[in-house]
Amino acid sequence: KAGVTQTPRYLIKTRGQQVTLSCSPISGHRSVSWYQQTPGQGLQFLFEYFSETQRNKGNFPGRFSGRQFSNSRSEMNVSTLELGDSALYLCASRRPQETQYFGPGTRLLVL
Amino acid sequence: GQSLEQPSEVTAVEGAIVQINCTYQTSGFYGLSWYQQHDGGAPTFLSYNGLDGLEETGRFSSFLSRSDSYGYLLLQELQMKDSASYFCAPSSGNTPLVFGKGTRLSVIA
Predict the structure, then answer these.
(1) Residues A23-47: b if buried by 16+ CB within 10 A, e if exposed
(2) What is the rounded CA–CA span in Å between residue B107 and residue B4?
(3) Residue among B102, B25, B13 at smallest CA distance from B70
(4) Is B38 on the interface with A (CB under 8 A)?
(5) B42 and A104 in contact by Cβ < 8 A?
(6) Residue B33, SS3?
(7) I need a surface site. Which of A90, B15, B62, B99 has the fewest CB within 10 A?
(8) B45: which chain A residues are within 8 Å (Cβ-Cβ)?
(9) Do B55 and B61 meet the contact criterion of CB atoms below 8 Å apart?
(10) How far apart are CA B86 and CA B99, in angstroms?
(11) pLDDT tens, position by position, for chain A (111 residues)?
């Protein structure tokens, strides 16, 4: 069974731009969560989607948004990029009550 | 609210045994997972304790005590490739896992 896939793997943007990251979950997994990982803050939860509905949201500004499609694929968007948004963005999928499986991540560099 | 405590760094010798502790405070606690992450890689699932006690998976074992809000990951016969960061992650029903900053394990010869 294929794992979680994320595109693109690497991305360079400049301040003020916006970016969209994509995540395809493991087949049959309807829950998709997004995390931001930085050296200083570690892994921080952004939001979780289940059946196209945002179920939980972390403590991030409104510039960070996401959505999920009917095939469970998910996208997250960051608008008005800041230098501090440079991070590894991880997507994870799971079945309810089960553990998460992570994708390889998208490494975003904001210049 | 939720909180997690893990040591930030641990160093151990190749072939030895190391224990990484985790204490947590969460509401609606369901189970405790452990993840490994190598530099530049994504977290990978190691083990899950849904019940109190010890779970063994090869060289890795994980323990949970709900009454003490405490768990640990035990790594035996350490190998250089075990050098990585290790995260404990409480799971609260359908609430996504909460991760801390992890424990960086360095295995030395």
Answers:
(1) bbbbeebbbbbbbbbeeeebbbbbb
(2) 24
(3) B25
(4) no
(5) yes
(6) strand
(7) B15
(8) 99-101
(9) yes
(10) 10
(11) 689 999 999 999 999 999 999 999 999 999 999 999 998 888 888 999 999 999 888 889 999 999 999 999 999 999 999 999 999 999 999 887 777 889 999 999 999
Residue of B nearest to A6 (CA): B42
Query: How many angstroms separate the CA atoms of B101 and A41, rounded?
Result: 7
Q: How far apart are CA B93 and CA A96, in angstroms?
A: 8
Cα angle for residues B85, B91, B96 (degrees, 5° grid): 90
Percentage helix, strand, coil for chain B under 3-state DSSP, each rounded to 5 = 5, 55, 40
Asked if residue A2 lies in contact with residue A100, where contact means CB atoms within 8 angstroms, the answer is: no
Residue reference for tokens 């994708």:
A103
CA A104 to CA B4: how far, in whole Å? 24
Token code pair at residue A62: 């409104």
Is A41 in contact with B101 (Cβ distance < 8 A)? yes
**DSSP per-residue codes, A30-81:** -EEEEEEEETTTEEEEEEEEETTEEEEE-S--TTEEEEE-TTS-EEEEE-S-
Place of tokens 């977290």: B43
Closest B-chain CA to A39? B101
